[in-house]
Write a structure and sequence with these properties.
Blueprint lengths: L11 E5 L10 H9 L2 E4 L14 E4 L11 H13 L4 E5 L9 H10 L4 E4 L4 H8 L12 E6 L18 E6 L5 H10 L7 E6 L7 E6 L3 H7 L6 E5 L4 H6 L4 E4 L2 H8 L1
Parallel strand pairs: 1-4, 1-5, 2-3, 2-4, 6-7
Antiparallel strand pairs: 7-10, 8-9, 8-10, 9-11
Helix pairs in contact: 2-3
The structure holds S-adenosyl-L-homocysteine.
Length: 264
C-alpha cells in the first residue's frame, strides 16, 4: 500500500538521496523528486538521481573552489519558495539526519511557520560497509558502531575519538583531509596499530574504490592511492578479513571476484 504523499505547495520536503546510486533511492524519495517544482540539491547528490525530472534544479551545495551559498541563504530560499506556493524538495546526500544540517533547516522553517517533512535515505556509511562486504556489527566481534565526523569544522580542533573498545566499529565521515592526524591521535589513545581499517570512496557509484590496511598504515595507503573524496573510513575487527587478504597499502578496486575472495 502506498501512502498518499502530502505534496501540497507551501511545504518543504527534506529528502535523503542515498549514497549516489539512483537504485538506492527510497520509493518515496523517487516519487517526491519526480513531483517537485523545485529541487535544491547538495553537491554530493549525483545528477543521475534527478535526471530528466520536470523540476527546476537549484544547486546549493559546497563544491571545492566555487562560490557557494551560505547555510542561511539556503534556509531563506527554502522559506521563500515555499511561500511562493512551490512544491519544494530539499535533496541531501545519504540521510538528511546524518551530518546534513537537518536541525538548522528545520529550525528556520519552523520559525517561518513553513510545514516540513523529512524522508530518510540510505546513509553513505551503510553503502560503504556494503561496498566492502563487511558488517558493522557482527556476533562475537562487534556489538556496536559509532559514526563520527573526522572534520572539526572551521577553526575547531579535531573531533575526539571514542575510547578504544575491541567490540566497537568506528565509522569516520569527512575524515580524509585529517586522516594522518586522526590516526595519530587514535594510536596515542591506545588503538592498536594493527587494527583493521578500510577507506571506501564513492561507495555505490561507478568510481567506487577502497583501500584496506592496518590502522597505522592507512593514511599512507590512502595518500599513495590518491583516494578521492567523498570517502568513508571503517575501523575495527570487522574489517579484518579485508586487511588480512590485502595487507598494507593495497588499493583494491571493487570487483565481485575480489570481494568473494576477501570474504572466503
Ligand atoms: N548525510 C550524508 C553524510 C554527509 S557528510 C550521509 O548520510 O551519507 C559527507 C560525508 O559522507 C563525506 O565526507 C563522506 O565521508 C561521506 N560520503 C558521502 N557519500 C559517500 C560515498 N558515496 N561513499 C563514501 N562516503 C561518502
Amino acid at each position: 500500500m502506498t501512502r498518499e504523499l502530502d505534496l501540497r505547495p507551501e511545504k518543504v520536503w527534506i529528502v535523503g538521496a542515498g549514497p549516489g546510486d539512483p537504485e538506492l533511492l527510497t520509493v518515496r524519495a523517487a516519487r517526491l523528486i519526480a513531483e517537485a517544482d523545485d529541487l535544491l540539491v547538495d553537491a554530493l547528490v549525483p545528477p543521475a538521481v534527478y535526471q530528466g525530472v520536470k523540476a527546476r534544479i537549484l544547486y546549493v551545495g559546497k563544491r571545492s573552489g566555487r562560490p557557494h551559498l551560505s547555510q542561511r541563504e539556503i534556509e531563506d530560499i527554502l522559506v521563500r519558495l515555499a511561500r511562493e506556493g512551490r512544491r519544494v524538495v530539499r535533496l541531501k546526500g545519504g540521510d538528511p539526519a546524518v551530518f546534513a544540517r537537518l536541525g538548522e533547516e528545520v529550525r528556520a522553517l519552523e520559525e517561518a511557520g513553513v510545514p516540513w517533512e523529512a524522508v530518510p535515505g540510505v546513509s553513505s556509511f551503510l553503502a560503504a560497509a556494503q561496498a566492502v562486504g563487511i558488517p558493522l556489527t557482527d556476533r562475537g566481534e562487534a556489538d556496536r558502531f559509532v559514526v563520527l565526523t573526522g572534520h572539526g569544522g572551521e577553526g575547531r580542533s579535531l573531533p575526539s575519538l571514542p575510547a578504544f573498545d575491541a567490540a566497537t566499529t568506528v565509522v569516520l565521515l569527512m575524515a580524509i583531509g585529517n586522516l594522518g592526524e586522526l590516526v595519530a591521535a587514535a594510536l596515542d589513545a591506545g588503538y592498536p596499530a594493527e587494527l583493521p581499517a578500510v577507506a571506501v570512496s564513492q561507495a555505490s557509484l561507478p568510481g567506487e574504490r577502497r583501500v584496506a590496511a592496518p590502522l597505522e598504515a592507512l593514511p599512507r595507503a590512502v595518500a599513495s592511492a590518491r583516494l578521492e573524496t567523498p570517502a568513508t573510513v571503517l575501523i575495527g575487527q570487522v574489517a579484518k578479513r579485508l586487511t588480512q587478504t590485502k595487507p598494507h597499502s593495497e588499493v583494491v578496486p571493487f570487483s565481485v571476484e575480489l570481494r568473494s575472495a576477501t570474504l572466503s
